[in-house]
């Protein structure tokens, strides 16, 4: 290689090689960024993920609707008195993912359960009003959720997630 | 790739692999210890530059394919969405589009270098022919890539080029139908071109491997054309050639970046920013600059079949070059006559390129025929004849002797000057095809735009006033379909806040649905909605406007242009003047005159416009003084309106322009420093070898 006769200016030569190598490395790394960043959601996808409003007035007690937000199904259930009582009767500490029903709904709107309908096991969509707990049943690997969307039985490790939402009025929520 | 290697890695794990797959030995023998002639000049770095560009095109192409939609109805829009919405999409698209031009530029230099120094002669015939195959594959790939954005030039270029095959006797029509997958260029054509455009680069890469293999068997040629004899004639590939190639690539990157960041549309055609329209052919169909010489040959032959044969022969003839030129001296350095004819040949190619961009009429046709004869005569008459009659100068015995002779002798600045002239000539030929909108119209006056030049920025006030003019006047007839309300709040735009954008959007009624009852309904606009178009479809727009549909304005400033003429376009390359589109738009808005000049007849339902091609425009004078009020005290004159709305429309066409120029500046600072570092490193590495 080139080291043989570098005795006269060893440091200057080494410095030049290191500086050039470093510049190439820095430039290469910086040039990589656009190629990675382009994989993230583009501006139109992000804009389409803006909050949505949902009118609750057509949903009768005991019914539920499914809406989509950011490509995810959101279950909105109008729970019966029985479902609410069942959800609140369990011993929270005994649950796989302990969380009280009160913490999962907005107070004053206790009849409304809003959850992301994606099984926390591997992402299938659970079926509402099925299973042993008056809640959701996931057909993929048999996870069972109760009427508060909490995991009760099966391989799923966590409760159905609650999306960010607020009540704009008594009959209207904004998700996102 | 020159036979088995005795390379032994010291690391035991690598040794284990090496015994089973001697790949490290292959790399070591081909790219590390491989002996390179020590007298190679910088023209030899174009091999590395080409490898780099091929890698770049494949990388950016694979990424663009992640976002592109190959469908006749969606392709044009998907390309625009890549540029507008994908993170760094504008950068990736510019890299790919300008990259194609750079790739061809480099391949032409590479080929001419081979021609000049006789790199096709024994024992390098197969190496040369593989190169011609790569070039043919590149042409096919470039052509199909140009079709993908599905603009007017894409569509009509595809129509014209595929129709070349209809010249084949008996089977022509069926072959063309087969290529199209239909009775005209359409969606199936686009789909297969996309598929093949993705495939061919990998074939190119495969042939490049063969090309490099053949190179490493025969050894590199060199400027003196004598084979290396002793160890003194060569240097190891690494670090000598590697660092020199690296410096070459760094310099080439500067040119490439100049196009990417400052002149992305310089080599393109404004017509390709108009979506494909099977019912209207643009006035001039012109291929990309790198095909122009062959296009000129095609057009100069009055018979269809003969023209097509001539065009393909012009490329195929390169394959026979090793046998057409049988002179024993390789390098033109020692062939005084061949050297002169070489430069004449280069001039012929550039002039053919120039003619390829001109309308096929009058003197251009005759010149085209003469030059076509010259082109073929170079291969069929001049080279065979020279091999017989030329008396070459004495060739040095060895490379080291040649180097010694050179140290005392004269350098060759003449060659470099000629090359620079050739380069400017190529740019010249490349840019003349942009003479479009001027036909039948007066040339628009230039303006000083705030967004021109390397540090150009949009004037926020002008953008906001322009938006007002668009909203109150233009939007009655013209859509702005590629712009969403949210864009008004984007950095580098009119600079509205999120709340202002929401308020602006809510003034619009947007069609949505269907709702649960299956009905369409109207709701107030949101930030994510796009500007609604004034007419539901093109037919309605046509019917309401006397037969001429008002064009969508999103891209209008990039879809219109005019020729700047010689020598302005050359100066434009350095001054980065890119504002022909805005000049034209602003001029048309102000070019209405009530008094039609003598000798011009304007048909019923049209209006006289000084700058509109043909002068008869269907749009009535849209702006008059005082029509739109401004809060900021700007004058309410037509001139001001025209300037503001043009600025606004430049932003709608190029919303990321500020980011592009800002990043461009950073990249240039880096590249200049890097090129200097590479240069000094190269000098150090080579210090012992001279
Ligand atoms: S995904 Fe629901 S149980 Fe596995």
Automatic annotation (TrEMBL), chain A:
Chief location bin: membrane
SUPFAM superfamilies reported for this sequence: ISP domain
Gene3D superfamilies in UniProt: Rieske [2Fe-2S] iron-sulphur domain, Single helix bin
EC number: 7.1.1.8
GO cellular component: plasma membrane
MF annotations from Gene Ontology: 2 iron, 2 sulfur cluster binding; metal ion binding; quinol-cytochrome-c reductase activity
Alphabetical UniProt keywords: 2Fe-2S, Cell membrane, Disulfide bond, Electron transport, Iron, Iron-sulfur, Membrane, Metal-binding, Translocase, Transmembrane, Transmembrane helix, Transport
Protein name as it appears in the record: Ubiquinol-cytochrome c reductase iron-sulfur subunit
Source organism per UniProt: Bradyrhizobium manausense
Source taxonomy: Bacteria, Pseudomonadati, Pseudomonadota, Alphaproteobacteria, Hyphomicrobiales
TrEMBL record, chain B:
SUPFAM superfamilies xref list: a domain/subunit of cytochrome bc1 complex (Ubiquinol-cytochrome c reductase), Cytochrome c, Transmembrane di-heme cytochromes
Alphabetical GO biological process terms: respiratory electron transport chain
Keyword set includes Metal-binding: yes
Keyword check for Secreted: no
Membrane topology (UniProt): Multi-pass membrane protein
Residue stretches spanning the membrane: 42-69, 90-111, 126-148, 160-183, 195-215, 246-263, 305-324, 336-357, 363-386, 663-681
Limits of the Cytochrome b/b6 N-terminal region profile domain: 13-224
Locations listed in the record: Membrane
A cellular component term, taken from the record's GO annotations: membrane
Pfam families (UniProt xref): Cytochrom_B_C, Cytochrom_C1, Cytochrome_B
Cofactor(s) the protein needs: heme b; heme c
Chain ranges of the Cytochrome c domain: 461-593
Signal sequence, renumbered to the chain: none
Gene3D superfamilies named among the record's database cross-references: Cytochrome Bc1 Complex, Chain C, Cytochrome c-like domain, Cytochrome c1, transmembrane anchor, C-terminal
Chain residues that bind heme c: 474, 477-478, 619
Tree of life domain: Bacteria
Keywords in alphabetical order: Electron transport, Heme, Iron, Membrane, Metal-binding, Respiratory chain, Transmembrane, Transmembrane helix, Transport
Cofactor-binding details, from the entry: Binds 2 heme groups non-covalently.
GO molecular function per UniProt: heme binding; metal ion binding; oxidoreductase activity; quinol-cytochrome-c reductase activity
Residue ranges annotated for the Cytochrome b/b6 C-terminal region profile domain, each copy included: 227-397
Role: Component of the ubiquinol-cytochrome c reductase complex (complex III or cytochrome b-c1 complex), which is a respiratory chain that generates an electrochemical potential coupled to ATP synthesis.
Family: Belongs to the cytochrome b family.
Self-association and partners: The main subunits of complex b-c1 are: cytochrome b, cytochrome c1 and the Rieske protein.
Name of this chain's protein: Cytochrome b
UniProt organism field: Bradyrhizobium manausense
């Amino acid at each position: 290689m080139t080291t043989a006769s570098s005795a006269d200016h060893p440091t200057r030569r080494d410095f030049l090689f290191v500086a050039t190598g470093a510049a190439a490395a820095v430039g290469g790394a910086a040039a990589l960024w656009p190629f990675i960043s382009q994989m993230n959601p583009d501006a139109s996808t992000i804009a389409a993920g803006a909050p949505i409003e949902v009118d609750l007035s057509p949903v009768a007690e005991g019914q539920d609707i499914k809406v989509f937000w950011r490509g995810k199904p959101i279950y909105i259930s109008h729970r019966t008195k029985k479902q609410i009582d069942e959800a609140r009767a369990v011993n929270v500490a005994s649950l796989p993912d302990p969380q009280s029903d009160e913490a999962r709904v907005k107070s004053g709107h206790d009849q409304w359960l809003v959850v992301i309908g994606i099984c926390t096991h591997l992402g299938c969509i659970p079926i509402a009003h099925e299973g042993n707990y008056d809640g959701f049943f996931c057909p993929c690997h048999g996870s069972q959720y109760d009427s508060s969307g909490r995991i009760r039985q099966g391989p799923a490790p966590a409760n159905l997630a609650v999306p960010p939402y607020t009540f704009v009025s008594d009959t209207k929520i904004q998700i996102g | 790739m020159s036979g088995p290697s005795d390379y032994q890695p010291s690391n035991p794990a690598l040794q284990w692999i090496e015994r089973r797959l001697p790949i490290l030995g292959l790399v070591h023998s081909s790219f590390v210890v491989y002996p390179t002639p020590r007298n190679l000049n910088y023209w030899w770095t174009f091999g590395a530059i080409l490898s780099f560009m091929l890698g770049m095109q494949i990388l950016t192409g694979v990424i663009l394919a992640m976002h592109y939609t190959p469908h006749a109805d969606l392709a044009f829009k998907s390309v625009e969405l890549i540029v507008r919405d994908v993170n760094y999409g504008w950068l990736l698209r510019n890299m790919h589009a300008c990259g194609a031009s750079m790739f061809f530029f480099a391949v032409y230099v590479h080929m001419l270098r081979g021609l000049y120094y006789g790199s096709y002669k024994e024992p390098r015939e197969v190496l040369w022919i593989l190169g011609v195959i790569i070039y043919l594959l590149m042409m096919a790939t470039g052509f199909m890539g140009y079709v993908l954005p599905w603009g007017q030039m894409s569509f009509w270029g595809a129509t014209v080029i595929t129709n070349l095959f209809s010249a084949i006797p008996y089977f022509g029509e069926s072959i063309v139908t087969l290529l199209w997958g239909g009775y005209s260029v359409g969606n199936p054509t686009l789909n297969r071109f996309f598929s093949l455009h993705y495939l061919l680069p990998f074939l190119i890469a495969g042939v490049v491997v063969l090309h490099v293999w053949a190179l490493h068997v025969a050894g590199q040629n060199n400027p003196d054309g004598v084979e290396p004899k002793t160890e003194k004639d060569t240097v190891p590939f690494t670090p000598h050639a590697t660092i020199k190639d690296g410096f070459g690539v760094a310099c080439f990157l500067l040119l490439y970046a100049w196009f990417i960041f400052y002149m992305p549309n310089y080599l393109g055609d404004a017509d390709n920013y108009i979506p494909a329209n099977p019912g209207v052919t643009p006035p001039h169909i012109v291929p990309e600059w790198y095909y122009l010489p062959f296009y000129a040959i095609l057009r100069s032959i009055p018979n269809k079949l003969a023209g097509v044969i001539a065009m393909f022969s012009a490329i195929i003839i390169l394959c026979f070059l090793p046998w057409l030129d049988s002179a024993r001296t390789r390098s033109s350095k020692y062939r005084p006559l061949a050297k002169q004819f070489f430069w004449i040949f280069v001039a012929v190619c550039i002039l053919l390129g120039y003619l390829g961009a001109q309308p096929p009429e009058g003197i251009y046709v005759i010149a085209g025929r003469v030059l076509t004869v010259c082109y073929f005569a170079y291969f069929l008459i001049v080279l065979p004849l020279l091999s017989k009659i030329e008396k070459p100068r004495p060739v040095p015995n060895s490379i080291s002797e040649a180097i010694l002779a050179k140290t005392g002798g004269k350098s060759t600045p003449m060659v470099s000057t000629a090359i620079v002239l050739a380069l400017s000539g190529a740019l010249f030929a490349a840019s003349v095809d942009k003479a479009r909108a001027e036909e039948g119209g007066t040339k628009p006056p230039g303006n000083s735009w705030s967004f021109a030049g390397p540090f150009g920025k949009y004037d926020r006030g002008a953008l906001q006033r322009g938006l007002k003019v668009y909203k109150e006047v233009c939007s009655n007839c013209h859509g702005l379909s590629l712009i969403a309300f949210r864009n008004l709040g984007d950095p580098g735009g009119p600079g509205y806040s999120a709340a202002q954008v929401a308020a602006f959007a809510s003034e619009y009624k947007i069609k949505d649905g269907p709702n649960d009852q299956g009905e369409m309904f109207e709701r107030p606009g949101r930030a994510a909605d796009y500007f609604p178009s004034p007419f539901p479809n093109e037919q309605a727009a046509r019917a309401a406007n006397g037969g001429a549909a008002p064009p969508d304005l999103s891209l209008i400033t990039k879809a219109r242009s005019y020729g700047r003429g010689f020598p302005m376009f050359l100066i434009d390359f350095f001054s980065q003047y890119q504002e022909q589109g805005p000049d034209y738009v602003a001029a048309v808005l102000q070019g209405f005159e009530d008094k039609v000049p003598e000798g011009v007849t304007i048909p019923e339902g049209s209006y006289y416009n000084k700058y509109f091609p043909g002068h008869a425009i269907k749009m009535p004078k849209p702006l008059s003084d005082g029509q739109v009020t401004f809060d900021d005290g700007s004058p309410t004159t037509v001139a001001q309106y025209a300037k503001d709305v043009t600025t606004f429309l430049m932003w709608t066409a190029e919303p990321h322009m500020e980011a592009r120029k800002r990043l461009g500046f950073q990249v240039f600072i880096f590249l200049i420093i890097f090129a200097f570092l590479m240069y000094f490193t190269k000098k150090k590495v080579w210090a012992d070898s001279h």
